[in-house]
Design goal:
- There is one protein chain.
- The chain is an alpha/beta fold.
- The chain has one domain: 3-Layer(aba) Sandwich (Lysozyme-like).
- Helix content is 29%, strand content 16%.
- It contains five helices and eight strands; from the N terminus they run H-E-E-E-H-E-E-E-E-H-E-H-H.
- A six-stranded mixed β-sheet has the order 1-5-4-7-3-8.
- A hairpin with a 5-residue loop joins strand 4 and strand 5.
- Helix 3 crosses helix 5.
- It is globular, with a radius of gyration of 17 Å.
- The protein starts with a helix and ends in an 8-residue tail after the last helix.
- It binds zinc ion.
- The site of zinc ion (ZN) has 4 residues, from loops.
Amino acid sequence: MRIFRRFLCVALLVMIASTGQSADSLKIVSAPVDFGFRRCDNRVVDTIILHSICNPEAVDKFSLESIQAILKQYKVSSHYVILRDGGICRLVEEKDVAYHAGRSRLPVSPFRRELNGTSIGIELVCDPEGQPTEAQYEAAVKLVRDIKSRHEIKHVFGHEDVAPGRKTDPWGFDWGRFRITLDQEPTVNNP
Ligand SMILES: [Zn+2]
């Protein structure tokens, strides 16, 4: 009985922690912020923008807490943060406009400006001189597929592509590898 009760408790905790369950059981931890976004109920999303972030002044520059702290400092946020271990955290609801792109422009037609209103931002926790981890690549592909199941996504770009000369992230990111994996049909072994 005690074991069953413990199991029930663990199951409950898992249910609370993972609020975003999709078809391929993508786990998303809810970690909402109260800054860096504005509420919106009727926006159309067609772009995903990948970023990098770390907090060099924190004891643990890669922790969720330190990332939230540096975002708060600048009053900005992305919708998602992917931690070094591949853990995905949602900071802002997809329906809301997060302040992650700043002055920006699509590098392809229709060359639309100010992309916050039509995009979802994903932060990959990383050093400026570093690279994403294997787990982060896997999580990024799963998350982008998941977002594509909810929105008609036409563009997936890096911050550096939409704000050239001003931004250099995502740092150390292998776009070839990412796009090849993203375009592969997910299978049971490669969800
Ligand atoms: Zn960025």
